[in-house]
């Protein structure tokens, strides 16, 4: 137990260090624009403060204005030298103090970036989590079927389609799907998560699924072929091993045999599923942008279009945090489950 | 090499690539709009084309034989008739549109069967012409005029052109008669553009630009970017991975930490954010992609180099006194090189898609015509909503085809370097 605790703390420390390093990188890259955003914010706040003091002479007014501006500048640390500004910004971003957005507003009218980001997260999880699970399930099924009938039609599809789809931008397929099934044949809604006004209760859930259907179908039908190909090849390696030969000699039908083999590649499958789920946390800027899905990616899409730097930083750091936390958790799970894997091995 | 050329996927991939390469080199010479590469965003270059028109070959009875866009120079010098207050100039334009009959005959017979006249726009260009003119446009030749299409006074815009809305032309020629008051300068060779409702091989976009031309011009950027970036990324991944594995020590651990950092960074969001803030160019995109994509080769190469390093023949080389540099350059690198070639081919599609994705967000290089930018324009100007498939399908299919050709070549190479995969 003790070695595991030591290992765990080291892994967590490593993850945190990595996270801080990335936040530092974001702060450095976005330093100029983030300073600009802060200056605009100070101007707004100064104007607001001055509106309350109306009966002042011109010189008093100028003095007051200078005093407030200076106080605000100090408050937001804009008077400090560059390294110190970057340091404080890194700390703010790393601790999720993103401040207020410049133009993007949450559904409830909130301009607190953290609130906006947290509102978008569940939508991303719903769409891409479902997608990851469906892709793994269907991909595994197709892969097993393909491996059991070598050179059958499904096997040929499983070997050609990943190549075709890898060169295909998912968002472009999304554009086509949207054009066909939302505008030419209006079967699915063209964007958003619910109709307006949103139905309540069960009707609301069905409405949500209806809105999710088109992006989900597009993503699943494109992405299931990579895991299928992987599963097929993994199984192909085991196909000629002794225990399979024995099972066949025993009289197991070919269709059952495939699932027998699949049991042998469970660890690889588990890794694939977990990594797929982890990837789904980040969402997808372009797919969500095209389908008007208000998740993290859609939010990012909007923030880029309106050059809203605080929101950009917020989404980036939340995605990074989730991603790193997931990777650390995954490593810990492996350590826990398989004592042969030791710290420092390839992740 | 022989194995490679014998594999079916490699041959298919190379064939498509050869075709793409040919178009990249000679495309600008065969496109209908030769100046498009420098004047893609110049509105005046495209002004005579119809906006958002479907391809020419979609014409048929189902859309009432929409006229394709076409350009006609006046046949010969104008017929001239002098009067006391001015003169009449009449040009004939042969439309070669295969309509039945000529002149008065066709006009009196009305529209030929199966082809009712469709209202269309026509641009008359009179270089050197200026001011207000009286104009009469009729079907048929100047010596045998038919049905009247337009009669009225119009102002010529400064470049001497005039846009008319006609009730539809069915004859194979039209004539335009211009009344010039004395003192007005006589215009040069007249040209007529029938704007039409369909245009070109692949139609036009909402800004009247020819989609086929854009498609051909986009090839070279996709090819250039994909090949250069994948070559450089795989090369740097290969070198870093090999040296990190063989030299180890501080260099090895630093390289591995840097690898970790870049491989965990959310790639597309970061690319997008940086392009949004710092004015994007194709080369800055290439630089950023280089910064991130080397990680994809690094880990595989690193793991493989660690294996090779401890193989028997390398140990033997150590025993006969080969230095580390010798071992790396003469033994480890040559063994990894074939993998690297396969990886170069396989990584091209991802880079092309990434560029297209960044361009789709409107963050592309505005000095070039790329497929991603065409799709960006399509998205922003409502091609999806209006079902303008000719604008959306070709660029995406081009990306897919180019990706497929490189993937096929990569798989062909992979079969050669990974003989274990041959059974599949």
Keywords:
heterodimer; A: 347 residues; mainly alpha; MetI-like fold; 2 domains; 15 helices; 0% strand; elongated; disordered C terminus; B: 424 residues; alpha+beta; Jelly Rolls; five-stranded antiparallel β-sheet; four-stranded antiparallel β-sheet; 9 strands
Q: What secondary-structure arrangement, pairings included, does this model have?
A:
The complex is a heterodimer of chains A (347) and B (424).
Chain A: H1 2-29, H2 31-52, H3 58-75, H4 82-94, H5 113-148, H6 153-166, H7 170-184, H8 201-223, H9 225-238, H10 242-249, H11 254-264, H12 266-280, H13 285-291, H14 296-305, H15 309-337
Helix pairs in contact in A: 1-4, 1-15, 2-3, 5-6, 5-8, 5-9, 5-11, 5-12, 5-14, 5-15, 6-9, 7-8, 7-13, 12-15, 13-14, 14-15
Chain B: H1 2-6, H2 8-30, H3 36-39, H4 43-46, E1 70-73, E2 79-82, E3 86-94, H5 103-109, E4 120-125, E5 132-139, E6 148-155, E7 161-166, E8 173-181, E9 191-194, H6 211-247, H7 249-264, H8 267-277, H9 282-309, H10 312-319, H11 324-360, H12 371-380, H13 389-417
Antiparallel strand pairs in B: 1-9, 2-3, 3-8, 4-7, 4-9, 5-6, 5-8
Enter the CATH topology name of the largest domain in chain B. Answer: MetI-like fold
Low-pLDDT segments, ≥5 res of chain B = 98-115
According to CATH, the fold-level topology of the largest domain in chain A is MetI-like fold
Structural class of chain A: mainly alpha
Number of individual domains of chain B = 2
Would you count the extended β strands of chain A for me? Answer: 0
Mean pLDDT of chain A: 83
CATH architecture call of the largest domain in chain A: Orthogonal Bundle
General shape of chain B: elongated
Beginning-to-end CA distance, first to last residue of chain B: 20 Å
Q: What structural class do you assign from the helix and strand content of chain B?
A: alpha+beta
Q: What is the beta-strand fraction of chain B? A: 5-15%
Largest sheet of chain A: none
Considering residues with a beta carbon less than 8 A from a beta carbon on another chain, report the largest interface and each chain's count.
A-B, 47 and 50 residues
Overall outline of chain A: elongated
